[in-house]
Amino acid sequence: MARLLRGIDDELYVQYGHFTLGGTDLSRFTSPEGYHFTAAVRMEAWDAEPARPDGSWEPVEESTFVADSGVVHLVAMMDERGHDFLIGPPYFEYGVTAHVQVDGEGGVGGEDAADERWLLRFWPIRDAFDPLKHMRAMERIIRMPEEYVPLPLPPELRAPPLEPRRVPVPVSTAQEWAAMRPGAFDDQLRRTQARLARQGVTVHDWLREQGVDVADDTPITAELIADLQKRPGRFRDRYIDRYYGRAVQREALPHGFEGWEPHVQEERLRELADGELIAEALNPRRVPEFSMPYQQRGVERLYPGTSRRLWRWEDEIIDGEPFDGNLLVDRTVHARDPYTRQIYVSGIVTILRADRRNRRMNWYVVRDAEPHEAARVRCSEATWQEEEPGR
Questions:
Q1: 325, 321, 295: which is closest to 308 by C-alpha?
Q2: How many CA atoms lie within 13 A of 259 on its CB side?
Q3: Nearest 5 degrees, angle CA 82-CA 86-CA 91?
Q4: How far apart are CA 381 and CA 170, in angstroms?
Q5: Staple 344 to which of 28, 30, 335, 362, CB 3.0 to 4.6 Å?
């Protein structure tokens, strides 16, 4: 039986009757009724193909796509975008269904309701990783440009492309990946259900006692429980508002926050709130996290859930252990500085979120990669390995 892993409720102003889904190669979703309207969109990640929703939802589209990062977001014209949402592991083929909910008059009813309600459901189908597409080596430069040259390189700066080597490509199952595992919320929910069962009360009964209008067949999610928490009420979006409340308590608002325009405040908090939720889902076992820089040609950012080899300078420890106990997977010492007694090392890590405390370069909060994650990086390195050093 398919299980709901997580969901998010978003809202988007749709123009000319359609919107797209960032992070995928899907064509646009087109409304059967509206032209310019506000859409309330519910996105859900499932571990397998879910059953069709109840009869109030009308099917609009069913399709498949390959996700480069496993993170998607709604996009409308004028670059209006929604929340980042984790649907599963990167480089997987996914199924998606789109449903719309309307009443007899072509709307969804209710004075405060959006003009249309959409339901997008995602589930993994198969591992689609291909090192020739997803971790392709960059072109070599045959001479140093006098000034910054954006990628792709012009022909006069390119060396002949490397020929890929034929190596076995690892194939994983979706259940191996952290994004598809039960997290801390699932353990908390089981304990809550057991405690309430001893009192002869269901979780749905308890939620209704707390003032939440929920039917008996409604899946219990972290988002639903979180709605019980008191929020400041400064922002209309509940995810942004909850993050703002926590940031105020932690005294962790971004520098200069109060001086920003309201729409800038909301956009920045959305980015931070989404990053925190995704990072939690990508590290359900709460293994140690650490921060590392990423400064390489042609890459503006790394996406949560993807794995890469990263490099850093460390103090050389006598017993050879890393100074912070991290960067252990495929750990390699590349160089030593005899004066500072430092070593230049690399290891394979998985990206959890951007580290916004380091503003001058790309820094990321990461964890050591798991075996199936590291296998993809090793496959890519072997595929694009040169036959002869210095070729």
A1: 295
A2: 3
A3: 115
A4: 13
A5: 335
Give me the CATH number covering residue 56.
2.60.34.30
Instruction: Please state which of the ranges 113-117, 135-139, 266-270, 281-285 shows the lowest mean pLDDT.
Output: 113-117
* Token representation of residue 146: 């006098």
Distance CA 353, CA 86 (A): 12
Long-range contacts of the stretch 307-310 (C-beta < 8 A, 24+)? 307/348, 307/349, 307/350, 307/351, 307/369, 307/373, 307/374, 307/376, 307/377, 308/348, 308/349, 308/351, 308/377, 309/346, 309/347, 309/348, 309/349, 309/377, 309/381, 310/346, 310/347, 310/349, 310/366
Q: Measured between alpha carbons, how far is residue 330 from residues 192, 342, 368 in Å?
A: 40, 19, 10
Does some domain include residue 254?
A: no
Distance of CA 121 to the CA centre of its chain: 16
CA distance 275 to 84: 8
Residue 269 inside a domain? The answer is no
Q: Which of 73, 97, 130 is the last residue of a domain?
A: 130
What SS3 class is residue 276? helix
Q: Which two tokens stand for residue 280?
A: 């939690």
351 near 302, Cβ under 8 Å?
yes
Q: Give tens-digit pLDDT for 164-189.
A: 999 999 999 999 999 998 765 676 77
User: Which among 76, 109, 130 is the end of a domain?
Assistant: 130
Contact 67, 77 (CB under 8 A): no
- Counted residue by residue, the chain has a size of 391
Q: Range of 81's domain?
A: 1-130
Confidence bin at 102 (pLDDT 50/70/90): low
**Tokens at 200, concatenated:** 């002869």
Q: How many CB atoms lie within 10 A of CB 256?
A: 8
The secondary structure of residue 385, as a DSSP letter, is -
Categorize the per-residue pLDDT at 266 as very low, low, confident or very high, splitting at 50, 70 and 90: very high
Total count of domains within the chain: 2
- Whether residue 274 is contained in a domain is answered as no
Mean pLDDT over residues 273-287, rounded? 92
pTM above 0.90, yes or no: no
Q: Within a domain: residue 331?
A: yes
